[in-house]
Write a structure and sequence with these properties.
By secondary structure, this protein is mainly alpha-helical. The protein is built from 13 helices and no strands. The longest helix has 24 residues. The N and C termini lie far apart (54 Å). The relative contact order is 0.15.
Amino acid sequence: MAHMTNPLATVDQLYQRTSFSALPSDLQDIIFFTTQCLTQAAGILLRIPQSVTAQANVVLARYWLVESPLSHEFSDASAAALYLVAKLSAHPCPPRDVCNVYAYLLSPSSPLFKGGANPAPALDDKEKGGPSSYYLSESAYAAFRSRITTLEARILYSLSFDTHVALPHPLAITYLQALDFLSVPKTQISARSIAYLNTALLSPQLLYLTHQPNALAVAAIYNAARDIGAKMPECAWWEVFDVDREELGFLVVGMRSLEGWARKQREEHEELRKGMVTRPFIEAEMRKRGLRIGNGSAGTGGDEVEDEEAAMMRSMDERAAQLEE
């Protein structure tokens, strides 16, 4: 049954993530949510099955449990995780496709995180979102690919080369086959359950790292049944699937609360309505709060030097790309 379970985060890991990180928890949550959304959007544009994209979400979450998000640019970590998981699946993606998709999603032309319809930009209007805003020159592509492959190796090393992810989606469909009491079309409740499971991937509460797939599947079914008004038995039917009441209650609340949390963050942070959150924005927020900017952990000054070197290399790559254009 090992293929149906996941390695879960330990209490030690969760405690260190919240107590020994220089990165405030609210900024950690924003980084996690936006980067996971970016990964989902990239998977859609690359036409990768949702099962592969979901595994990439989980692998990225595990990586950030070991390494600080500020160690690398968030979009680079997302691209590396998606590229790695796709490579190990039956749907590998060429590096060029991955780089092109992320260049578009990070450009002003991308509708990601932007509410409302944007007017069509002029063809040569690069800063306002013309096609040239997401054109990837050879030097920019080579730099992006180099960062992705470097991060791919780093992710594998950090996770001890354990990339196994058991998803709750198949379990939810299997459980629904046994639940004839729902008195509604199974296609309707199945779609709603899968939607909750996909939403849980974006939750900063790290639901996929703290609960096994069977518990996630039962919670998604419970939420879906409540939404569509399906009649459920009065007995504790979830115990049949090895889930207790306390765990079910926590997951139900966690899955249903994400939408309200995301709406609140968009209202409080104007940057979230402009596009993907970047490391410079997070660093600026930390400066406003008088916090030290390093790699997100309580390290030495060497971390700041490494960040400055990475920023300088990124600046040189961008300048070379501009010269080629």
